[in-house]
Amino acid sequence: MNGMEMNIHYFRMINDLGKQYPALNPVFFFIAEYTVYLLALIALLYWFTRKHENRIMVICATITFVLAEILGKIAGTFHYNAQPFAELADVNQLVFKAVDNSFPSDHTILFFSFCISFLLFQKKKGILWLLLAIFVGISRIWVGVHYPADVLVGALISIGSALAVYMLVPNLRIVQVCLELYEKAERAVLPAKTKTKGY
Question: Is the dihedral of CA 92, 106, 32, 130 positive or negative?
């Protein structure tokens, strides 16, 4: 099999599971469409713990996403494929969207950017972050909007970006200075609660 035939073969393997096990379709639809809100909430919660290391982690994850998205758009200029539901017959399509270039997967880039960044900072929870990213990637195939190659390339771009950012960004003086200025302004507006002694 050539590359495109393999891509279609593995797409069918995953996407056809929705026909074999239709009871799982709502689960994968939810993962594909709504876990992005959960990820945003998690990032906000980490930020507002007001812990310096958590904020550096969120900053790194955000920079990773921006970098990976730029690289993804560049990759998309060298290869084009529409969503599987637009190119193939009898797709288990659970998400309806406009037809455009689905290579690489933006959802996968987003989740792998944040989840791999979180994994690098929180190695004890690493398997959970990795599983979340993988499940989101698989869900995008399950609902019929991406090929496996779209997901795989998005994941690889994000992993490479996360590693580069993790090694470079936390020690940059400009990042530390900007965060210190933000935290100083935050303390002026929202003073941290002080513990009071009980009587």
Answer: positive
Task: Give the integer Cα–Cα distance in Å for 11 and 18.
Answer: 12
pLDDT at position 196 over 70: no
Quick one: DSSP state of residue 22?
A: G
3-15 and 148-168 helices, crossing angle to 10°:
100
Beta carbons of 43 and 114 less than 8 angstroms apart: yes
Per the confidence metrics, is the pTM higher than 0.70? Answer: yes
Q: What is the CA radius of gyration of the chain?
A: 20
Whether the ω angle into residue 104 lies within 30 degrees of 0, i.e. cis, is yes
For residue 159 the two structure tokens come to: 């992993």
Q: Give dist(CA 166, CA 40) in Å, integer.
A: 20
